[in-house]
Amino acid sequence: MYSKDGENYFIVDAHIALWDARPENQSNIHGKQFIDCFYDYHRNLGPDEEHWSYEEFLYQGGERLMKDLFEDGYVDHAIFQPAYLREFYKNGFAQVEEAYDLAAANPGKLTYNHCYDPRDGEAGLDRLRADHEKMQFKGVKLYTAEWYGESRGFKLSDPWSYRYFEECRKLGIKNIHIHKGPTVRPLDRDAFDVADVDHAASDFTDLNFVVEHVGLPRLEDFCWIATQEPNVHGGLAVAMPFMHTRPRYFAQIIGELIYWIGEDRIQFSSDYAIWSPRWLIERFVDFQIPEDMTEYAPITTAQKKKILGLNAAKMYDIPVPAELRLPDADETTTGPRQPERADLAAA
Amino acid sequence: MTITQLERTRRAAAVSEEDIRRALGAVLDPELDEPITDLGFVRSVAVSAGPEGTQAVVHLRLPTSFCSPNFAYLMASDSKDVISALEGVEKVLVELDDHHDSDLINAGLAADAGYRGTFRHEAEDSLEELRQTFRRKAHTAAMERCLTDLLRKDPGLSETDLGTVRLQDLPAARNTEALLRRRAALGLPGGGGAIVFVNHEGRPYPPGDVPMALRRARATRISIDGNAHFCRGLLRTRYEGSGDEQVHRPEGAEAADHHNLLPFTVKEIHS
């Protein structure tokens, strides 16, 4: 829990990882390129005093993770969102077993989400059933740009993706987290396009689709589909640290999200270990939309509480102390929220 | 010196590194809608005299190894095309450095294999539709900048009023010029009587739809400006000194983007 100015915030970090990107686990140059790309994100968007050495960044281990999140980072509960990257790392990028064991040892603090790849076909479905029987996860993380032999990605609207969603439905896996990335086939189209999420969300209305990074770099396309689909949510992984480098851009991201999808469908994430939650939480609680941006209403303390933890807690049935809970906003389920609040011309 | 040798020297001298860079100024990052030269994506340009004219070697660089390979290919192949089109150029080698698809793209460029020849089974058709998608986004953002400027200047205007603003109502300014360029790229009319707020086919919006369309356009503008500055920043982190070659982008700029305009400070030395 984080407390400031007499207000208490229940914190759920909805996107964390336990990865191993050390050279001995890299399968090829792409393993190095991938972690180097993350390290540039880390250095570019985080404040200087929060920068880690490259060696620290390659691997943290469970002990350090627990310290950074729960001792130093105010986090009450965190959710693993593994990216396996089988073509880049020998034993996978996300350390699935280690993360599962850590979550099993700390059930009050950690939730383990699994990952699968629909290109594994029938065998993958059997595996998913077996994994679920053992691990009992409520959510999965799908990385649509993952390489797989000749293939460099898949879409959520592919027939096999649908077979897997049907299986998720049967097993009670209700939260589908999606990360979009480049190199999705065919290359003729925009790899970051979120249109396939729209199809899947319309056809599986009983599943929640959490688009990580709020669709960045396609914020506009994400907002447009999410406003029409009440089961599409936005995860703030990678968007949060813009608070530091580009606060006006961050204000616009938050302002647009609150306008298009409302305060009940946005989830805080540090994207640990790219960044640590401590400074992100402190700064978000202090954050305000700049006064000259009259097109957005100021962000309220209640909205911050929902984003920092209550929204994800609700999706994952994480118990929240009664005095910290808040009711849902009295808003439309689709379409822009209270547009009159954010009318530039009325300002 | 024989006539032939003289002629060769003249031809080789005809195309300079400056000429190559100027030509590369016409190559746009389709997503960010800016010249690759302004973004700092041109890593090096070298020219030498060949038997039939100038030989040019150009290296390109991008903000991450995982920038979309289709866009990477577009910028590299467009670079090769604009340099090849210069009179006096005999041979062009364009190489993309440090990208996850560098080998594939560089081999495709060297063999003039084209997009489908380069990416084989990963490509279905062409990249024209993709280019068009981003031309439309660039136009949307340019339109929103002009109309929001008007709205901020004139408190008497409502969002709905913006649906009837004509090109002649816009001030002569950077944003207006940018809009006219983007309209031309889509084949939309540029006359003063033309309505500003139109879809990509040039159709205006019914008055009731204007505020929502403007909000959507705003999200597009925020996205493009945000991506443009993020990509610039990542390039500076990845390649030390690359910021010196970036041209400042005023649209969406914040304090952190004035990296090369900050005064140089020296820490106090205590003896």
UniProtKB/TrEMBL annotation, chain A:
What sequence ranges are listed for the domain Amidohydrolase-related? 12-318
Q: Which InterPro entries match?
A: Amidohydro-rel, Metal_Hydrolase
User: Where do the segments described as Disordered lie?
Assistant: 326-347
Report TM segments: none
Source organism, top-level taxon: Bacteria
A Pfam family of the record is Amidohydro_2
- Please name the GO terms that the record assigns under molecular function: hydrolase activity
Bias-annotated ranges (Basic and acidic residues): 338-347
- By what name is this protein known? Amidohydrolase-related domain-containing protein
Q: Which organism is it from?
A: Mycetocola miduiensis
TrEMBL record, chain B:
Question: What protein name applies here?
Answer: Metal-sulfur cluster biosynthetic enzyme
Q: Where is the MIP18 family-like domain?
A: 17-94
Database matches in Pfam families: FeS_assembly_P
